[in-house]
Known about the structure:
mainly alpha; about 75% helix; globular
Amino acid sequence: MMSMENFKQFLVFLVSALSVGFVSIIFVMRWVFHFKEGLAWDGGLAEFNWHPLLIVIGFIFLQGIAIIVYRLPWTWRCSKLMMKFIHAGLNILAFILAVVSLVAVFDFHNAQNIPNMYSLHSWAGLAAVILYAIQLVLGLAVYLVPITPGFVRAALMPLHVYGGLFIFSTVIATALMGITEKLIFGLKDPKYKDSPPEAVFVNVLGVLIAVFGGLILWIATRPSWKRPSENQLRLARSSDLEPVTGANDTAAMTTPGDQETSADQARRRNGKAEESVGRISV
């Protein structure tokens, strides 16, 4: 189980990640409603705004939480199957929000006669969504279908873990490219190079997203913060059922009668020792 020192370190990184994630969501909402036209589904700029908002909420924040959910010590008393459903549920929700964000941006481009899929941001973004879908389907098929052999699950686990971290890192990088692209094309007077308030504000949003990604990756890659094996958790639960632990276990487990017998035996041994000393003195 996690030592107290490591637990405190874990709490610092977890609280930091959650705080930065929530602030990122607040920043993207501020960007959409204060600097942009708000939200709508009319083929205009307000429809495009669903794209950055849902990407930050779903594809970045929710995916990040899904990655580290196994490492929350408070969930270690939950069954592994329950945690699999929570992990899968968060990823499915993140995927749905990502798909809706893609629909919004494609619909906006088509309504405004803007070409699709010409930038590196769009290439990387679509690749991330496709890889995420493959990762999700394989994860559900391998780890939630009871008939999947154990050796198959064990063999694919390193690839599953690496794939999740790779996709998450790709999403972070793609989001930063998209923010820069939107500012370059969207800011006209003053231009992006003149550092207007919107540009500075959104640049800070990009820094927050990068920091959130770094914190999630750090938490997810620390071996000492990994969820213990089921055997270790069962042993920990069984030890919690013992009334007393440590040097007094034997005394605590003896009955009153046993304690009296032990005391009588001690007195008899002391009596014999005194008689032996008396005979030697005489």
